[in-house]
Protein backbone atom coordinates (compact mmCIF):
# COMPACT_ATOMS: atom_id res chain seq x y z
CA UNK A 1 0.00 0.00 0.00
CA UNK A 2 1.45 3.42 -0.94
CA UNK A 3 2.22 5.84 1.85
CA UNK A 4 -0.40 8.57 2.34
CA UNK A 5 0.40 11.95 0.85
CA UNK A 6 1.63 14.58 3.30
CA UNK A 7 -1.04 17.07 4.32
CA UNK A 8 0.74 19.93 2.55
CA UNK A 9 0.07 18.26 -0.79
CA UNK A 10 -3.63 17.91 -0.09
CA UNK A 11 -5.13 21.41 -0.03
CA UNK A 12 -8.76 22.43 -0.55
CA UNK A 13 -9.55 25.73 -2.25
CA UNK A 14 -12.99 26.43 -0.80
CA UNK A 15 -13.81 29.25 -3.23
CA UNK A 16 -12.66 29.42 -6.85
CA UNK A 17 -14.53 30.74 -9.91
CA UNK A 18 -12.84 28.42 -12.38
CA UNK A 19 -15.72 28.91 -14.81
CA UNK A 20 -14.92 32.63 -15.17
CA UNK A 21 -14.03 33.89 -18.67
CA UNK A 22 -10.56 34.85 -17.43
CA UNK A 23 -9.74 31.12 -17.55
CA UNK A 24 -11.24 30.34 -20.94
CA UNK A 25 -7.91 30.42 -22.77
CA UNK A 26 -5.99 28.06 -20.48
CA UNK A 27 -8.31 26.36 -17.98
CA UNK A 28 -6.65 22.90 -18.30
CA UNK A 29 -3.24 24.46 -17.61
CA UNK A 30 -4.62 26.33 -14.60
CA UNK A 31 -5.96 23.07 -13.18
CA UNK A 32 -2.69 21.29 -13.91
CA UNK A 33 -0.75 23.95 -12.01
CA UNK A 34 -3.15 23.69 -9.08
CA UNK A 35 -2.76 19.94 -8.88
CA UNK A 36 0.99 20.20 -9.21
CA UNK A 37 0.94 22.59 -6.24
CA UNK A 38 -1.01 20.04 -4.18
CA UNK A 39 -4.44 21.68 -4.46
CA UNK A 40 -6.53 18.53 -4.80
CA UNK A 41 -10.06 19.87 -4.55
CA UNK A 42 -11.74 23.11 -5.60
CA UNK A 43 -15.22 24.37 -4.74
CA UNK A 44 -16.81 26.28 -7.63
CA UNK A 45 -19.65 28.61 -6.54
CA UNK A 46 -22.05 29.79 -9.22
CA UNK A 47 -23.01 33.48 -9.36
CA UNK A 48 -26.11 33.46 -11.58
CA UNK A 49 -28.74 31.03 -12.80
CA UNK A 50 -27.47 31.11 -16.38
CA UNK A 51 -24.20 29.55 -15.14
CA UNK A 52 -25.67 26.66 -13.13
CA UNK A 53 -25.30 24.02 -15.82
CA UNK A 54 -21.81 25.13 -16.83
CA UNK A 55 -20.52 25.12 -13.25
CA UNK A 56 -21.97 21.68 -12.61
CA UNK A 57 -20.56 20.31 -15.86
CA UNK A 58 -17.10 21.69 -15.09
CA UNK A 59 -17.13 20.17 -11.61
CA UNK A 60 -18.07 16.77 -12.99
CA UNK A 61 -15.60 16.91 -15.86
CA UNK A 62 -12.67 17.76 -13.58
CA UNK A 63 -13.56 15.95 -10.36
CA UNK A 64 -14.35 19.12 -8.40
CA UNK A 65 -17.19 20.34 -6.15
CA UNK A 66 -19.73 23.07 -6.85
CA UNK A 67 -22.39 25.27 -5.29
CA UNK A 68 -25.46 26.86 -6.86
CA UNK A 69 -26.67 30.34 -6.01
CA UNK A 70 -27.28 33.90 -7.15
CA UNK A 71 -24.57 36.38 -6.13
CA UNK A 72 -25.69 39.72 -4.63
CA UNK A 73 -23.84 41.64 -7.36
CA UNK A 74 -26.04 39.88 -9.93
CA UNK A 75 -29.48 40.17 -8.37
CA UNK A 76 -30.24 43.44 -10.15
CA UNK A 77 -29.99 41.63 -13.48
CA UNK A 78 -31.66 38.45 -12.21
CA UNK A 79 -35.28 37.63 -12.88
CA UNK A 80 -37.52 36.46 -10.07
CA UNK A 81 -37.88 33.24 -12.04
CA UNK A 82 -34.18 32.60 -11.34
CA UNK A 83 -35.12 31.73 -7.77
CA UNK A 84 -37.48 29.10 -9.16
CA UNK A 85 -34.63 27.87 -11.38
CA UNK A 86 -32.41 27.53 -8.30
CA UNK A 87 -35.10 25.64 -6.41
CA UNK A 88 -35.56 23.28 -9.35
CA UNK A 89 -31.81 22.75 -9.76
CA UNK A 90 -31.35 21.97 -6.07
CA UNK A 91 -34.17 19.44 -6.25
CA UNK A 92 -32.94 17.92 -9.51
CA UNK A 93 -29.36 17.51 -8.26
CA UNK A 94 -30.05 16.80 -4.59
CA UNK A 95 -28.35 13.41 -4.85
CA UNK A 96 -25.32 14.78 -6.71
CA UNK A 97 -22.33 14.23 -4.42
CA UNK A 98 -20.52 17.16 -6.01
CA UNK A 99 -23.23 19.68 -5.08
CA UNK A 100 -21.95 20.74 -1.67
CA UNK A 101 -23.62 24.09 -0.88
CA UNK A 102 -25.92 26.91 -1.91
CA UNK A 103 -23.74 29.80 -3.01
CA UNK A 104 -22.42 32.25 -3.68
CA UNK A 105 -25.19 34.19 -1.97
CA UNK A 106 -25.24 37.10 0.44
CA UNK A 107 -25.28 40.88 0.61
CA UNK A 108 -22.94 43.57 -0.73
CA UNK A 109 -23.26 47.06 0.79
CA UNK A 110 -19.93 48.24 -0.63
CA UNK A 111 -20.68 48.63 -4.35
CA UNK A 112 -22.77 51.78 -4.88
CA UNK A 113 -26.07 51.75 -6.73
CA UNK A 114 -27.23 48.25 -5.85
CA UNK A 115 -30.82 47.64 -4.76
CA UNK A 116 -30.44 46.70 -1.09
CA UNK A 117 -34.04 45.56 -0.69
CA UNK A 118 -33.80 43.27 -3.70
CA UNK A 119 -30.55 41.85 -2.35
CA UNK A 120 -32.25 41.16 0.97
CA UNK A 121 -35.16 39.44 -0.73
CA UNK A 122 -32.90 37.17 -2.80
CA UNK A 123 -30.74 36.45 0.24
CA UNK A 124 -33.69 35.41 2.41
CA UNK A 125 -35.21 33.32 -0.37
CA UNK A 126 -31.93 31.48 -0.95
CA UNK A 127 -31.44 30.84 2.75
CA UNK A 128 -34.85 29.17 2.78
CA UNK A 129 -33.90 27.04 -0.22
CA UNK A 130 -30.67 26.01 1.50
CA UNK A 131 -32.57 25.17 4.68
CA UNK A 132 -35.07 23.06 2.75
CA UNK A 133 -32.28 21.29 0.85
CA UNK A 134 -30.30 20.71 4.09
CA UNK A 135 -27.24 22.29 2.48
CA UNK A 136 -24.73 24.75 3.96
CA UNK A 137 -24.28 28.16 2.34
CA UNK A 138 -21.31 30.06 0.94
CA UNK A 139 -21.76 33.72 1.86
CA UNK A 140 -20.55 36.89 0.18
CA UNK A 141 -19.79 39.32 3.01
CA UNK A 142 -18.86 42.89 2.15
CA UNK A 143 -19.86 45.58 4.65
CA UNK A 144 -22.88 43.42 5.35
CA UNK A 145 -21.95 41.10 8.21
CA UNK A 146 -24.59 42.30 10.66
CA UNK A 147 -27.40 42.09 8.08
CA UNK A 148 -26.25 38.61 7.06
CA UNK A 149 -26.24 37.50 10.67
CA UNK A 150 -29.77 38.84 11.15
CA UNK A 151 -30.91 36.70 8.23
CA UNK A 152 -29.19 33.62 9.61
CA UNK A 153 -30.87 34.09 12.97
CA UNK A 154 -34.26 34.23 11.27
CA UNK A 155 -33.62 31.36 8.86
CA UNK A 156 -31.40 28.67 10.32
CA UNK A 157 -29.20 26.81 7.83
CA UNK A 158 -26.63 24.05 8.13
CA UNK A 159 -23.67 26.39 8.57
CA UNK A 160 -21.21 27.00 5.78
CA UNK A 161 -18.47 29.51 4.95
CA UNK A 162 -18.36 33.30 5.26
CA UNK A 163 -16.19 33.92 2.23
CA UNK A 164 -13.38 36.54 2.18
CA UNK A 165 -14.18 37.55 5.74
CA UNK A 166 -13.12 41.04 6.80
CA UNK A 167 -15.45 41.94 9.65
CA UNK A 168 -14.88 42.52 13.33
CA UNK A 169 -13.88 39.96 15.93
CA UNK A 170 -17.39 40.15 17.41
CA UNK A 171 -18.94 39.50 14.00
CA UNK A 172 -16.49 36.66 13.36
CA UNK A 173 -17.44 35.01 16.64
CA UNK A 174 -21.12 35.41 15.80
CA UNK A 175 -20.68 33.57 12.50
CA UNK A 176 -18.66 30.85 14.22
CA UNK A 177 -21.38 30.54 16.84
CA UNK A 178 -23.87 29.84 14.05
CA UNK A 179 -21.73 27.01 12.70
CA UNK A 180 -19.76 28.89 10.07
CA UNK A 181 -16.10 28.83 9.09
CA UNK A 182 -14.39 31.96 7.80
CA UNK A 183 -12.59 32.10 4.46
CA UNK A 184 -9.11 33.63 4.19
CA UNK A 185 -7.24 34.18 0.93
CA UNK A 186 -5.04 36.60 -0.95
CA UNK A 187 -5.95 39.64 1.16
CA UNK A 188 -4.24 37.92 4.10
CA UNK A 189 -0.86 38.30 2.39
CA UNK A 190 -0.82 42.11 2.49
CA UNK A 191 1.12 43.61 5.40
CA UNK A 192 -1.45 46.39 5.77
CA UNK A 193 -4.39 43.97 6.12
CA UNK A 194 -4.11 44.30 9.88
CA UNK A 195 -7.67 43.34 10.81
CA UNK A 196 -7.68 40.25 8.59
CA UNK A 197 -4.33 39.18 10.00
CA UNK A 198 -5.47 39.69 13.59
CA UNK A 199 -8.50 37.51 12.93
CA UNK A 200 -6.46 34.81 11.20
CA UNK A 201 -3.98 34.76 14.08
CA UNK A 202 -6.42 34.96 16.96
CA UNK A 203 -9.58 33.05 16.06
CA UNK A 204 -9.97 29.42 17.10
CA UNK A 205 -8.11 27.13 14.74
CA UNK A 206 -11.38 25.38 13.93
CA UNK A 207 -12.80 28.59 12.38
CA UNK A 208 -10.40 28.95 9.44
CA UNK A 209 -10.60 27.76 5.85
CA UNK A 210 -8.47 28.73 2.88
CA UNK A 211 -9.62 30.04 -0.49
CA UNK A 212 -8.33 31.95 -3.49
CA UNK A 213 -11.51 33.47 -5.01
CA UNK A 214 -9.58 33.09 -8.28
CA UNK A 215 -9.43 34.93 -10.60
CA UNK A 216 -10.09 37.67 -8.01
CA UNK A 217 -8.41 38.83 -4.77
CA UNK A 218 -4.82 38.24 -5.91
CA UNK A 219 -2.14 37.89 -3.21
CA UNK A 220 0.39 40.69 -2.87
CA UNK A 221 2.89 39.12 -5.26
CA UNK A 222 0.32 39.22 -8.08
CA UNK A 223 -1.15 42.64 -7.27
CA UNK A 224 -0.90 45.33 -9.95
CA UNK A 225 -1.67 49.01 -9.53
CA UNK A 226 -4.34 50.64 -11.67
CA UNK A 227 -1.59 52.31 -13.70
CA UNK A 228 0.12 48.98 -14.32
CA UNK A 229 -3.17 47.35 -15.30
CA UNK A 230 -3.90 50.18 -17.71
CA UNK A 231 -0.52 49.50 -19.29
CA UNK A 232 -1.47 45.87 -19.85
CA UNK A 233 -0.19 44.14 -16.72
CA UNK A 234 -2.42 41.35 -15.43
CA UNK A 235 -3.14 40.21 -11.88
CA UNK A 236 -5.21 37.07 -12.37
CA UNK A 237 -5.29 34.88 -9.31
CA UNK A 238 -5.11 31.07 -9.60
CA UNK A 239 -5.85 28.14 -7.28
CA UNK A 240 -2.16 27.16 -7.51
CA UNK A 241 -1.40 30.17 -5.30
CA UNK A 242 -3.20 28.60 -2.33
CA UNK A 243 -0.18 26.89 -0.71
CA UNK A 244 1.82 30.11 -0.84
CA UNK A 245 -1.11 32.03 0.68
CA UNK A 246 -1.19 29.32 3.34
CA UNK A 247 2.41 30.11 4.25
CA UNK A 248 1.24 33.49 5.53
CA UNK A 249 -1.42 31.83 7.67
CA UNK A 250 1.14 29.34 8.97
CA UNK A 251 3.49 32.17 9.96
CA UNK A 252 0.71 34.06 11.74
CA UNK A 253 -0.39 30.97 13.69
CA UNK A 254 3.06 29.53 14.36
CA UNK A 255 2.10 26.37 12.48
CA UNK A 256 4.03 24.22 10.06
CA UNK A 257 2.69 24.04 6.53
CA UNK A 258 1.54 20.47 7.16
CA UNK A 259 -0.36 21.60 10.26
CA UNK A 260 -1.96 24.40 8.27
CA UNK A 261 -3.05 22.07 5.49
CA UNK A 262 -4.45 19.51 7.93
CA UNK A 263 -6.37 22.07 10.01
CA UNK A 264 -7.86 23.99 7.11
CA UNK A 265 -8.77 20.80 5.28
CA UNK A 266 -10.57 19.42 8.35
CA UNK A 267 -12.41 22.72 8.71
CA UNK A 268 -13.46 22.68 5.05
CA UNK A 269 -14.87 19.18 5.47
CA UNK A 270 -16.74 20.30 8.58
CA UNK A 271 -18.16 23.36 6.81
CA UNK A 272 -19.14 21.48 3.64
CA UNK A 273 -19.67 17.87 4.77
CA UNK A 274 -20.33 16.45 1.31
CA UNK A 275 -16.68 17.19 0.43
CA UNK A 276 -15.65 14.21 2.54
CA UNK A 277 -16.94 11.76 -0.09
CA UNK A 278 -14.88 13.46 -2.80
Layout of SSEs?
Blueprint: E1 11-13, H1 27-36, E2 39-45, H2 52-62, E3 65-68, H3 81-92, E4 99-108, H4 116-133, E5 137-142, H5 145-154, E6 160-163, H6 169-177, E7 180-184, H7 194-202, E8 208-210, H8 226-230, H9 242-253, H10 257-271
Parallel strand pairs: 1-2, 2-3, 3-4, 4-5, 5-6, 6-7, 7-8
Helix pairs in contact: 3-4, 9-10
Task: Please describe what this structure looks like.
This protein is of the alpha/beta class and 278 residues long. Helix content is 40%, strand content 15%. The protein has one domain (7-277): Metal-dependent hydrolases (TIM Barrel, Alpha-Beta Barrel). The protein is built from ten helices and eight strands. An eight-stranded parallel beta sheet has the order 1-2-3-4-5-6-7-8. Strand 4, helix 4 (116-133) and strand 5 (137-142) form a beta-alpha-beta unit.
Write a brief structural summary.
The protein has 278 residues and is α/β, with parallel strands linked by helices.
CATH superfamily, called what? Metal-dependent hydrolases
Whole-number tally of structural domains: 1
Order of helices and strands: EHEHEHEHEHEHEHEHHH
Largest sheet data: 8 strands, parallel
What structural category do the secondary elements indicate? Answer: alpha/beta
Radius of gyration from the alpha-carbon trace, in angstroms? 18 Å
Count of discrete alpha- or pi-helical segments spanning 4 or more residues: 10
Strand content: 15-25%
Helix content class: 25-40%
Question: Low-confidence parts, pLDDT < 50 over ≥5 residues?
Answer: none
CATH fold group: TIM Barrel
How would you describe the shape? globular
How many β-strand runs?
8
**In the CATH hierarchy, what is the architecture at level 2?**
Alpha-Beta Barrel
Strands side by side in the biggest sheet: 1-2-3-4-5-6-7-8
Mean pLDDT: 95
| CATH class division | Alpha Beta
* Separation, N- and C-terminal Cα atoms: 20 Å
